[in-house]
Amino acid sequence: MEIRVERDAPWMSESRQLPAVTYNRMRILLGKSPGSVFVPIRSMQFLAIVDAEEIVFVDHIRKNWATIAWRDFRPGQRSALDAAVPYHAVYYRDDGLILMRRLQGEFDAALAALAAKAPAAGHPARVLDFVSRTGRAAS
C-alpha cells in the first residue's frame, strides 16, 4: 500500500527537543513494525505517520496534506539515554506553533496507548479459519 502525503511550502521551521520517553516509545514501536507506524491522536483528530526518517502529522480535514513534520532526529547528540533528543520541526500551516503546544504531549499519550494494545511477547497473532454457513472453511 502506498500513502502519499502532499506538502505545501514550509511556513516556518524551528529546532526543538523531544523528551527521551517519547522518542524511545516511538523507536520501540517503529522497530516492531515492518515499515511505518500510524499513530491516531484522537484528542486532536490528527494522525501521525512515523517512519525511520520523520514523523508527519495530518489532520482530519486535509487528510493527505502535511500539517507539521518532525525530522532530523539527532539522538547521538544527547549525553544520556534519558536526555531529550533534538529535532527539527517544519510547519506547513500558519497555526503550526499553536498546534505544537499540545501536539508533543498528545503524541506521547497516543504512543503509550498504542504500545499498550500491542500483543504481548510470546503470544503471536493467529489467523482463524471461519466456517461458513454451509459448513466449509472460508478461503
Report on this model:
The protein is an alpha+beta fold. It has one domain (12-117): TATA-Binding Protein. Helix content is 25%, strand content 24%. It has a six-stranded antiparallel beta sheet. β3 (46-50) and β4 (54-59) form a beta hairpin. α1 (20-32) packs across α2 (96-117).
The rounded Rg comes to: 18 Å
Shape: globular
- The helix/strand series, from N terminus to C terminus, equals EHEEEEEH
Distance from first to last alpha carbon? 22 Å
Largest sheet: 6 strands, antiparallel
Q: What name does CATH use for the topology? A: TATA-Binding Protein
| CATH architectural type | 2-Layer Sandwich
Query: What's the β-strand tally?
Result: 6
How do the strands of the widest beta sheet line up side by side? 1-6-5-4-3-2
- Helicity level, as a percent range? 25-40%
Q: What is the beta-strand fraction?
A: 15-25%
Work out the helix count.
2
Q: How many domains?
A: 1
What's the mean pLDDT score? 86
Give the class-level CATH name: Alpha Beta
Descriptive terms for the model:
139 residues; single chain; TATA-Binding Protein; six-stranded antiparallel beta sheet; alpha+beta
At a glance:
This protein has helices at residues 20-32, 96-117; strands spanning 12-18, 37-41, 46-50, 54-59, 68-71, 85-91. The protein is α+β, with helices and mostly antiparallel strands and 139 residues long.
